Records
---
Amino acid sequence: MVVPSFAVSLADRITAALPGAPAGFDPQIRLSEHADLQVDGVLGLARSLRRDPRQLAAEVAGHLHGGAPVADARVAGPGFLNLTLSGPALLGRVAARLADPRLGVGLPEAGGRTVLDYSHPNVAKEMHVGHLRSTIIGDALVRVLGHLGGTVVRQNHIGDWGTQYGMLIQHLAEHPSDQSALTVRYKTAYALFQSDPAFADRSRRRVVALQGGDPDSLAAWRAMVEESTRYFSDVYDRLGVLLTGADIAGESGYNPMLAGVAEDLERLGVARISDGALCVFGDEPGTAPLIVRKSDGGFGYPATDLAAVRHRVTTLRADRIVYVVDARQAPHFRMVFDAARRAGWLPPEVEAVHAAFGMVLGADGRPFKTRSGDTAPLVGLLAEAVARATAVVAAKNPALGPDELASRGRDVGIGAVKYADLATSRTRDYLYDPDRMMALTGNTGVYLQYAHARLRSILAKAGAGGTVTADAPLEDVERALVLRLDAFGDVLAAVARDCEPHRLCTYLYDLAQTMTAFYERCPVLKAPQPVRDNRVALCALTARTLSTGLGLLGIAAPERL
Ligand code: ARG
């Protein structure tokens, strides 16, 4: 059963008590240091209604006072409202959430259909930390949207087409016995392309052959894509993300649509020829246009993205398209969305979002690189994280068997990498620092995994029980814990709406800290009944909220650590 939060149900009651409030009025209810909750929005409303704020707040207080769940409503300061909730209402909430397998969380995304474009590495190239970020953020969004009832169509828009593959195929054809990895051969071919004009010429002819459907070129291309996608799958397996081979919808798939895209844009007057190229000009004078078709007749990245928008709206029936892509591509997406809107391919009711993320920096504050100076290859990076985590777990549990140690090391190591990435506000640059992400205290994945495991061990000792007695006394820290637990569904809804998984991280971290404060001040197992059972229930709800929340971030919550 869906259990709306206090914030949501009170917002409705407050709005009902304010006949003058405009549609969509937000009373701004938040946790308070002076009471349980505080209402900040009446103040601003009074100003716009030209009413005395304290008087308006007093009227609202009169409506709320004494009616469950409010035990006390007081006007404070210039026109804020402080609300104290009744103990039975708080404890009743704990019981209701515990009784529901979904912890009372609703399905606000039901009926919605989001096409999510994420991960999107490039064939024959190393996946780098930027792709790691896109993969991890995208995976968390897939999980949260799905949990809230939304339909998500995963699109792994891999880079698998373009003139650069002509040069690689040509090189493969000329050196059939070269056994080195594709990524290495790509670099060799590129160097040759730069230095040897005859090879460059042969490469250009190869592109034409490939695009013309030459069977040998296509076969070589296919083998190359397969080798790369096997490597991508290996990274996805190590990461434990939901992406599969079936989610691959690479750039090459749009190739047959590109000529039509160009023609239609020109016919619709959205694009025009300039210096031989077909361009879409933006509104701002002086900015570079979007080049749909180059002067040599070739199509590039923008044309593919325009074809993809049309496909996603018409065929995949998206009502929202989200691109989890590096912030540096913001101008590209602005222009693609704008052109697609003007062409009518992106109707007003379909939302297009560039969920941009910041760069990954090394501990020195510069773009993250490995010692060799390359942008860090992911497999080595993940292996290193797992090795470090395994050492941390082994130090804590010297007697652990090898299998158990390996599994916990993996949970902690991969969890640490994911959490460090997700916890940073999406648009900010993020510091890749293996030491810090593995710390047992502070805002880390390990800290949350430990908080969860500690609760599980208390619950194991408590045995059965945890029936809630609603009219038992409550300490302040217990009230604070109940109110945090109550906000879980609202936080998830905000994460889904704004594509911001870091808000779930902040929430879980605050929850774990509130839990720690509770645990320090309130004995659980030694408390007299019925307080003991109530506290066991609080521990159980916190543990389930933590493990569900971590699960939605794609992070394991092992029973023991
Ligand atoms: N493959 C591109 C890169 O590595 C990202 C693709 C992003 N998605 C898109 N629809 N353009 O930078």
---
Amino acid sequence: MLKPRSTPTRELVNLDGLWRFGIAGRVQDEPWTGRLDTTLEAAVPASYNDLFADREIRDHVGWVWYQRTARVPRGWADERVLLRLDSATHQGRVYVDDQLVAEHVGGYTPFEADITDVVRAGEEFRLTVGVNNELTNVTLPPGTLTVEQSGRRKQTYLHDFFNYAGLARSVWLYSRPATHVEDVTVVTGVDGAAGTVDYAVRTSAPADVRVRAVDVDGTEVAAGTGAEGSLRIEDVRLWQPGAAHLYDLVVELVDGGTVVDSWTESFGVRTVEVRGTQFLINGEPFYFTGFGKHEDTPIRGKGHDDAYLVHDFQLMEWIGANSFRTSHYPYAEEVLEFADRHGIVVIDETSAVGLNLAVTGGLAGAVTTPTFSPETFNDQTQAAHAQHLRELIARDKNHPSVVMWCITNEPSSNEEGAREYFEPLVQLTRELDPTRPVTYAVVMFANPSNDRIADLFDVISLNRYYGWYVANGDLVTAEDYLERDLRGWAAKYDKPILMTEYGADTMQGLHSLWDIPWTEEYQRDFLDMHHRVFDRVEAFVGEQIWNFADFQTTRAIHRVDGNKKGVFTRDRRPKAAAHALRQRWLGLNGVK
Ligand code: GCB
């Protein structure tokens, strides 16, 4: 699905701002049929949970309602009119006046509705959006709903981040010509000094297609006609990690000499390949440095915020990080566009986190119920996962920054049923995008002898907590365990190995001379120990620390107002480890 954009043939109205807001039970039934009966207003984009001084809202389970009016610009009489929600976490229902126009399940991918037949150019309409935050065994991420003796509904879940919900990304009204570009796919290659650009344009109706590739200064560097084809850019400037270069592909639909739709897609020319134990970008070995991140800030929760976006990327540059993983869900498209423009490498992850009944919030529990079974994660979960992959890859396939798909975080890959669950999903990912490697983040209890799925993937991405959940406070033992573990994977698989998580909770301002977990010194020494080991293992292609910044989680005895494994605090101040990392990463410069 194309991100709405203003073009010579399309117009765009942003519907962000303050919307009337209420939780189900406190507003009228069928709230879309009239003015929402509330005095509250919620900011969009933002998760609603932390906006109000109201515990019931923060912990509400079920539907909440957002409402505002919007006016269709009067010049849109001959256009199709669409509404686009960049996300509604985790389920959305959209009403224009009394009419349901869209419904979507999945909290981190966009959806839209053609509302031409229910609105009129120049007139106002009432826009009501219901958002539901419930998680079950067939949603991604999954969760469990229970009813307490008091009758209160409660949501529990297996992932270690707060279940922020609401309209955390932008909402748009846009116009589109009746005959229009529906989708554009760009696949690039390198041929000597030239770049090759294979493109495919899907149109809503038969039309003549012409395309041209344009450089940043506006110079046309290649052109072609037809819905599919290949362009050649001589003396191409590649998109490189740390040195982004983007071109525009201008796509025009022409009918009898008139341009009926015009769409511009940015692209970068680059290649990605896994060869043996190497991860190659543009044919050169690439070593990932960086973090697993979260969309998480005070007050806004998971709400997209351009100021944090700029600042986070500034901090990544300052510290020498060349990459991050969108743990544990697809991030706002603005984040990927920024990464495209600034040469930051992205591992794009799905929201399939928590497919593991042996983990709770990072801690291992006894497996009492099988993870994959008709009662737990089943065919319906797998179907939701497949649908999520389709939506994610459709959304993100043209971003040069995205170099790999991570289709799940820490599933129970050592359990029976894992292979049956994942094999078709890996296959689907490869069909949807044959150009990018595929990985999954491997949980600590899956090792080279009991893991059942690693051979299906291109890169082995390990989440390991030696010195934290195992051998806590004993970095000598932890070093030994870590090295054996990594060497075990390297001995079994001829594949690149990447560390996608390692980290130690750290309270900013807590210090000690000794190996005391939670201190700033311990975090620094813990990371140093890991880096010594990584430098000794040949198949190693990168290190992404858990986490970039402290983030909010659900309540748990091992969480102090959230997870504190950030190298930066939640308000983005550096802990001591940040300075040590900076020394290492600026020195490495993406090559080990
Ligand atoms: C993990 C999870 C991550 C947690 C982290 C932790 O393995 O992938 O979501 O936050 O551990 O800190 O426990």
